[in-house]
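Re: the multi-chain job from yesterday

Posting the exact lines I submitted so nobody has to dig through the queue logs.
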Amino acid sequence: MLLEVNNINSGYGFLQVLWDVSINIDTGEYVCLIGPNGAGKSTLLKTIAGIVRLKNGRILFNDKEHLHLAKGHEISRMGISYISEELNLFRRMTVEENLAMGAVAIKDKKEKEKNLAFVLGLFPQLKNRLTQISGTMSGGEQKMLAIARGMMSSPTLLLVDEPSLGLAPQLTTAVFDTLDILIKEGVSILLAEQNVHRTLQSTHRGYVIESGKIVLEGKSSELSENEHVKKAYLGIV
Amino acid sequence: MNHLSERSLFRKMAIKLKTPGSLTVVITIAVAVLASLYSGSYIFINTLVMGAMLAIMAMGLALIFSVMSVPNFAHGEFFMVGTLVSYYVFKPFIKITQQTGNPVLISLSPLITFFTATAVGVILGMFLEIALFRPLRRRSREQWVMNSFLLTLGVSVMLVNGHLLIFGTDFKGIINYWPYETIKILEVQTSFDRIVVLILSLCVILIFWAFMKSSKLGRSIRAVSQDETGAIMVGINVDAIQTITLALCCGLAALSGAFLLFMYPSHPSVGMAPLYNSWFIVILMGMGNVGGAAIGGFVVALFQVLTTVYIGEGWGLIIPAIAIAAILVIKPVGILGSPIRGILDK
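And the result, structure tokens for all chains:
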């Protein structure tokens, strides 16, 4: 197992959001997390990434790293890249500096250059914008930059939170296509998404989370046939 | 074609000149030059010496605010610590150099003093972060700005009264660092100390600037100041960066105090005026704007020098404060503005 989340409880201060949540991801798998607003999708990703401290439970990475004991920056250095909903770009730095910061944990210069070439191949639009201040770019470009920055640390697992939020349909498609390419490159992805239809089309497996609890899990093709998912998320009666 | 590109270049320059930052720089230099022509070039020299000191202090203050969201009201006390340490380090040197007259020791001893003062400031800053701010941050980030403000106020009271208790109220000063003749610059007799300290301060500002701009550590510091969560996401140890930032800035404040020991003899509340002035600067130029703070140092220094010369010594702090209040009425976020709109937004 690449990632094993065992019975975690997590939340903000006295407010508990996740109740006894368990999920797992195999190497190379493309797993989605679907659920309504406020169900705890983002909190789960943030807890795995170490941005939110968990109350109890265990998270294992690569069968040996105990993520529940690690700090946020250590988790990132283990090879987990988290791409948040708010993107958390360094808004007053240039695109190039943002990408360089993405690879801040990498010592090897050659690997850095390789990663830079890879992400610029993935997003050719960023190539002409290297000297632009990232905060002045459009929403779609910022999202691309966030994904590119996340890929700069050569991660094995990508946690992506609502990549389609606030994007035009065409750009949404482009983002999903990019994620498909990354899966082919051997990266594993955990995707939290509201665009359930498109998500279930491209992912391998999925979890449905409601009110902080996992209520359903299964292959994406099976989930899209499930009556509950059809009714609540796909709008098919 | 060539003609056209030349014109657009001019237009670009004109646009660049219209930004508030460059406008401020141009106006400041113009006023300083005019005043110097009118009343003598000592205005220019004084503004530079004082401006460099204020710039170093204010840059540290702005950086602490932007990286840690701490409004540091103990910053002046690090200036005080700098003067105190350098006094006690330098005094034995005076005795030795007076007895031996060793020219190497004469020229080197102030540098050793500056280094020691900076080191003490750095260690104290590090201690402050690890012993006080870190536990507070662990406990809760609620009302962080207010809580950390009160914490720095407490540190300030402790340091001032610690000085009072151990070293007393005496003015502990020196006549000069380098016992050399004054030098005539632009028809002003300027002491050797002033010139060397001015050059050293400008070097410190430039090195600091280059460090923040292009070193890996400097870039990580800027990253934490722009987005803390983003910094964690890319694998930056935010705790370490905050410790380094506070240590660095306290070191700079102490260095500033050490530089100016010959102008400001050490006593418990010597840090008051530099503290107020650097807060003027930071508020005037925009909270958390480090580059702006460097420029602002010279702007506020000019304000003060002009007030002292044309209105009177006692008005030195009052008139600049009024002028700054007036500017802030027109531009509430400060001349250069800043990404942090209100102190409690962050």
